[in-house]
Amino acid sequence: KISNSICSSGGHSATDDDDGGSSLDEAPPQVASASAAAGSASSASAAPAAASASVRSSRVEAHQRDFFRRMDADVAQAKAYVQRAVSALEMQLGDWQASAIVAGILFTPDQLEEIAAQLPFQIDDNEVLVEWLTSLQPAEKKQAARRGLLEKYSAFAGGLNS
């Protein structure tokens, strides 16, 4: 697509080489005929040959500038798309984590420290504390919280897979 756009912007089409790729190093017909005529002329006609080479060089440079400008725009667009997608996923994940905290299934380190400080006994392992805290919740509440989290997780995973 890019090579077609580059070729069409110069007003001529590039020819295909042996492997099917376009080649911008081949001059358009009017420049090629001018170059051939200049090559067969005497040294007095060296100025037109230099002029046609200059025209060819400036067209190639224009194509290169256009190509790299388009590449920069495409890369910037892809980067913006990825940044938007990552931001959306971070927001969904944060919402899911907040819901898990509210449901009493996920605990922040600050919450665990605060709870451990209020207990009349010492618990050194946070994993044991989390297991103990989740066992205190009624089964119905755990089921409802897990269903809600599962629905949010399904939406989150669906966003990742699309």
Automatic annotation (TrEMBL):
Residues 32-43 have a biased composition (Low complexity). Residues 1-43 are annotated as: Disordered. It comes from the Eukaryota. This is Uncharacterized protein. Residues 1-12 have a biased composition (Polar residues).
